[in-house]
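quick one before i forget lol
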Amino acid sequence: MHSPEEDQQARRVLEEYPDHLRLPKGELQPIYGGFSGALIWRIVSDCGMFALRRWPHPGLPRGRIIGLHRLLEHVQSFGISFVAIPRRTRDGRTLIHFEDHDWQLESWLPGVADFHSFPSTERLLSSMTALSEWHRTAEHFVPDRHSAYWFLGPISGPSPAVMERLAALQAANQVRVSELQQKIQRSWNTPFHEPARRILDLFRGSQQAIMRELTVVRDVHFRLQPCLRDISHDHLLYTNHRVTGLVDPSACRIENVASDLSRLIGSMVKDDFLRWNTALSEYQQHLPLTTRELGLVALLDRSGVLLSGWTWLEWIFLRERVFRDSTVVLKRLQEITERMARLTDGATNDSFKSLIR
């Protein structure tokens, strides 16, 4: 839960906005902001509901955040209604710096992120349609010189995700693994011990194979454009069977669209390959993919599963991050363990190969 001091900071930030956007009588409603470290409040005003976001510190460069705001304005100007653009303060800013943090206010998007509770083919298809609309519109965004590094496109080049993941796996050397193993062993009386031990074993079993796969495509050029890069079932809001909200696009940067497809589809259907095929077929009704891009989807899913396990172990045992809800963390670790266990499954690999023929 947010502290009284944090609530007071939020009230102070709201004073920077026009009168009709400020908080009337009542209380701020703290909302769980996920694992990013951001804090979120829901605000009910006379002209609707809004979300106030406090970015984590240290966080993204301010130029990148402001560039993202311009990209969101661009996307919405083309009729994309499921994104929220930050509102402007009385003096025209979309980002406020206060008490060592950056803040923004945006409309509260309708819907609920409940795909796993109410999965359906209709929702899966709507998700692919929404993602293709985002990609098609974001491709034509023209950034200013301050944000071109993150948002310039379309261009051709190696996939940043491939390069970053290969570097991350190389950094997970034997010294790092041994250090992690020792800390996990000392956590024998915590609920994280057993899932962490299992994840580390699975990581070591697939690390070299995934590194070889990434090395094969390290220098291959793909079409790059602004992509979300961290989109999962938690980021899509549904009203009935239709996507009505896309939240937290903070990881957005140039990448190949395969990155978004691998993250979103994998989070929604895990290793259900029939539904993988359904999702990719629907996306390609709007934006066709090349054979290389289809192969990249499969590779980024596999490498993403492996590195998600490693990242969580680093957060918990090496960086000693404190999470507000350990039950949510344990649930995520269980999901990761189930998918990591299939990385060395021969049937799984054959199923993925059938997707990219």
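fyi The two ends are 49 Å apart (CA to CA).
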